[in-house]
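Example (one chain per record):
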Amino acid sequence: MKPLEFDRRYGELDQVIAAYVGLSADDTPDRPSKALTAYLRHTWHTRPWALSVAEQQLRTYAQNPPGRLRQRLGEFYPVPDIGLPEGEIQQWLLLVADHVKQSIEEGRVPPPVRLPVTPWEWRARFPELHQFLGGWFSQDMPDEFDDHDAAVRDYAASAAPTVVARVVGEVRELLVLGLEEVDYAVAVAELGMEVDPPAPYAPSGWLAVMAERLAGPRAEYVQEGE
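Predicted structure:
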């Protein structure tokens, strides 16, 4: 299926399902799950118009499950394993759609939280930082770069300036929260960092230094690393 057609049919449905990865689909008629609450909280804040799209796509998919022909042609959305028996997924999708509809019609907006609650919410709130840490500081980093600074230089030289600026902004947003150091360790891990910060820095200290370097003049920073 072409990307445009996929987005029209399943794009926001996919966002909702992604919010459940690694969590329980334990929604009840009286209470949305932690995963759905995180999706609603973030989406109300950033893309409130997408909620009606999510409700429609969830309901349409549940009411019109793919038949054999669509499955054979690959023109359907394969719901990932969310810990529910296959026979219960249809009713669960309708329940989630009902919660989204109720949130819209009654203005039920989950209250803001200081820290993201779920892995999906971490990545949705800090998307560019997630791409940076997950792409340049995975467990393969020591095999690809001499040290952390070399990885930062490579990112600064290869990423578009506007994207680098977004990373700097997201780091500063994270730092201004004034978290305990253990919470910053959790944050960078949730955002994809699989190696420890370089000595002698704690996670927050390294984030601050890294942001300052990325915020400096691009040409000067790249030249210093050469």
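Caption: Residues 3-106 form one domain.
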